[in-house]
């Protein structure tokens, strides 16, 4: 009986965390929307939301819910002096002023990449890059860098996984990754979304292991393939400065 009660408790925690993760890409959600997203009936979700509301993890506004103040209290303790998302922000802002485009940092999480920091372009037409967005690893300049400089066995597992899209030929993609390693950067031109282009470079730690990926992105009207290649050396220079900054605190 004790073990069964423990399993129920763990399941309730898992469901509550699933509910909180619904707000990763939505500011406000209704009970029905949340229940549909997590695949639970509305009465169960309502009970969990009531507990989360009572503890301050969600707030109710009419028929909508949003993240509560407790989440921000936890997030405040996430940032440390050696956190790349904060430590490299001034250099990212300098790069934005130099090139005029949106600057982002990405890390790999399993078979996805996550944008952990972004400095938006000041131009009227720009590519908006929300922090925290999760994107697939099989497309885009940052994805290619994350895979190209990953450990060989990790790269092979991801590319050969059953979830790899049939529309992307594995051997051709692996050849692209070889080229990325040779050049030290990757470009993408309307690969993930129409009208968008990007160039990305790796940032390594002291042991020359990939820490984070630095990327410049914007509309194809300003970022032609030639422009992306012209920007690559400047991006690599910025990455070397960022590596030095990271190594001073690690």
Describe the 3D structure:
There is one protein chain. With 250 residues, the chain is an alpha+beta fold. The protein has two domains: 2-74, Winged helix-like DNA-binding domain superfamily/Winged helix DNA-binding domain (Arc Repressor Mutant, subunit A, Orthogonal Bundle); 84-247, 2-Layer Sandwich (Beta-Lactamase), CATH 3.30.450. Helices cover 47% and strands 21% of the residues. Strands 6-5-4-9-8-7 form a six-stranded antiparallel sheet, with helices on both faces. Helix 1 crosses helix 3 (42-54), helix 2 (31-38) crosses helix 3 and helix 7 (141-148) packs across helix 9. It is globular.
Total domains: 2
CATH topology of the largest domain: Beta-Lactamase
- Number of helices in the DSSP assignment: 10
Structural class: alpha+beta
pLDDT under 50 segments (min length 5)? 1-6
Rough shape?
Answer: globular
The CATH class assignment of the largest domain is: Alpha Beta
Gist?
With 250 residues, the protein is an alpha+beta fold. The protein folds into 2 domains: 2-74, Arc Repressor Mutant, subunit A; 84-247, Beta-Lactamase.
